[in-house]
């Protein structure tokens, strides 16, 4: 038997075997999240079901999470539930419909941690008023101020921080399946859509506009819209279940499913951007 361990073939076949191909499977999410360890993430609406789940997963991955919310009690409840985790969770009081609140919050984060590396625009509301209902002006404005204007102002401040520090950050817009289609009302029943789908359709458009602006500014930042269907405990399920009993029997995602979608989007290779991700529970018929 020859010295190189082959089966005694000719000299031509005694050349070293080619190197084994490198595995094509990507590293798992835990390994890919290491790039975000110690980085600062802002999560709006962190007192809600989806925002809370996202904040928890980012903290577990070692991020410094600044939860922007009007509800300290709920964020504090999340914080004390986190044991032996690599990151930290901070509560920052902020009403995202108030520009001074937003500027103060981002200023505090800059003074405390140096700036923002990731923004999760999760805060949103839904009202029960019809578009044609009398005395609905305040509800109409409230929806647009929260779901569109607040999101845009937070994005502005986050991009300002990222660009000033030359950070290749990431902006996540928690959108909705209603940002892509309007739910069909059952004939004879009160429609439940109102201004909400319009505000979420706007988020779909805004995400693309932000992407184009980030390219123009040469920031290297990514932006992703994540559009879930019905989610257990989220504002859409909670606000429609009382008026439409069928919602109680519809399949739903868990808040943690949306959080995992966020982790997937923020751990893609540098040359890959998940622009739009729609996730539905199995069997959904919206």
TrEMBL record:
Keywords: Oxidoreductase. The keyword Hydrolase does not apply. Gene3D superfamilies: NAD(P)-binding Rossmann-like Domain. SUPFAM superfamilies: NAD(P)-binding Rossmann-fold domains (SSF51735). It comes from the Eukaryota. Pfam families: adh_short (PF00106). InterPro entries: NAD(P)-bd_dom_sf, SDR_fam. GO terms for molecular function: oxidoreductase activity, acting on the CH-OH group of donors, NAD or NADP as acceptor. Belongs to the short-chain dehydrogenases/reductases (SDR) family. This is Dehydrogenase. The lineage of its organism: Eukaryota, Metazoa, Ecdysozoa, Arthropoda, Hexapoda.
